[in-house]
From TrEMBL:
The keyword Methyltransferase is assigned to this record: yes
Enzyme Commission number, as recorded: 2.1.1.222, 2.1.1.64
Record pathway: Cofactor biosynthesis; ubiquinone biosynthesis
Protein name: Ubiquinone biosynthesis O-methyltransferase
GO biological process: methylation
Protein's UniProt keywords contain Oxidoreductase: no
NCBIfam families: UbiG
HAMAP family in the cross-refs: UbiG
Gene giving rise to this polypeptide: ubiG
Pfam families: Methyltransf_23
Catalytic activity: a 3-demethylubiquinol + S-adenosyl-L-methionine = a ubiquinol + S-adenosyl-L-homocysteine + H(+); a 3-(all-trans-polyprenyl)benzene-1,2-diol + S-adenosyl-L-methionine = a 2-methoxy-6-(all-trans-polyprenyl)phenol + S-adenosyl-L-homocysteine + H(+)
Origin superkingdom: Bacteria
Molecular function (Gene Ontology), one example: 3-demethylubiquinol 3-O-methyltransferase activity
Length: 232
């Protein structure tokens, strides 16, 4: 069975045509993308590397890595989102290879094939996040980098990421996140360790509402990222 929630796929597929509208539902991703891209690039130096973006959606991160010189493949199970990604790639002239395939299926087909693997804002939307982490570990080359981002599970994250962002500030559509699927850093670290990856750096992401911008932080209590390496 595919490691995906049909309700989650439908939710994001219905919004697919809005992926590249910087003022619509995915505005936070557009604002966050330069920050996370810079952090990824500071570790992995993506130019000239073969990169895989798992759960790529409409291709915001995929295209930005390709624009920095990476050879990028983006995968997702939403054909609607991939259609939007393909169209935008044609319009922008930034080449990305998109495919509708599950991470686990691609891992069986192309093990050890990528220098860089990213899986951003996805783990909290699937039934079995540990299986996605294991697939990432299989897909990356020895010595390569894997990057995750997700949401911590605690009262603060619920109040700010769900109640605040979805119901008060309306930065995100209501129902975007299911709090029960949020992942504590210790849980993600365990998934990573069991998959044979080495955790290199946890980094928090904080939002400054007055200036309306995101910044890197040592505070991982809400949004956070994790950089990992596979031993050479």
């Amino acid at each position: 069975m595919t490691n995906a929630d049909p309700h989650e796929l439908q939710k994001f597929s219905e919004l697919a045509h809005r992926w590249w509208d910087p003022g619509a539902e995915f505005k936070p991703l557009h604002e966050l993308n330069p920050l996370r891209l810079g952090w990824i690039d500071s570790h992995a130096s993506v130019s000239g590397k073969r990169a895989l973006d798992i759960g790529c959606g409409g291709g915001i991160l995929s295209e930005s890595m390709a624009a920095r010189g990476a050879h990028v493949k983006g995968i997702d199970l939403s054909t609607e989102a991939l259609g939007v990604a393909d169209l935008h790639s044609l319009e922008s002239g930034v080449t990305v290879d998109y495919e509708a395939i599950a991470a686990e299926a691609l891992a069986a087909r192309e093990p050890g094939s990528y220098d860089v693997v990213t899986c951003m804002e996805m783990l909290e939307h699937v039934p079995d996040p540990a299986a996605i982490v294991a697939a990432c570990a299989t897909l990356v080359k020895p010595g390569g980098w894997v990057f995750f981002s997700t949401l911590n599970r605690n009262a603060k994250a619920y109040l700010l990421a769900v109640v605040g962002a979805e119901y008060i500030a309306r930065m995100l559509p209501r129902g975007t996140h299911d709090y029960a699927r949020f992942i504590r850093p210790a849980e993600l670290a365990r998934f990573v360790r069991l998959a044979g990856l080495q955790a290199v750096e946890f980094k928090g992401i904080t939002y400054h509402p007055i200036g309306k911008y995101f910044a890197l932080s040592d505070d991982t209590s809400i949004n956070y990222m994790l950089a990992c390496r596979r031993e050479a």
